[in-house]
Amino acid sequence: MTQYLVAIHRPLGYAPAVSEDDAMGREIDALNAEMRAAGVRVFVGGLAPIESAKSVRLTAGGAPSVTDGPYLESKEFVGGFWVLETASLAEALAWGRKAAVACRAQVEVRAFL
Questions:
Q1: Per its UniProt entry, which superkingdom is the organism in (predicted)?
Q2: Does the pTM exceed 0.85?
Q3: For the residues 24-33, what does the mean pLDDT come to?
Q4: In 10 A of CB 35, how many CB atoms?
Q5: How far is Cα 32 from Cα 57, in angstroms, rounded to an integer?
Q6: Based on the structure, what is the number of domains in the chain?
């Protein structure tokens, strides 16, 4: 069995309080229950707003330096994720499709090494 990251991507400026309704919450809860029942869910987590991100970069001298903001400048960010353990990429993608529908968002599926 391989573990896969199923990451939910959100556009910059996404506001959960405005964009997420009760129906979406129920669909995500149902998907989580289905994943638990299937025994594929290892871990799930939503992430704090991108504005609260901190990045640690190495200076020219090799010392770590903490700065405000995400590591990458992008028009999208990861808003939450699942770690699933499935028998195949095809199975992980099937869950990814369900996640995209429930979250109404683009989803990335990638295996852990």
A1: Bacteria
A2: yes
A3: 96
A4: 19
A5: 35
A6: 1
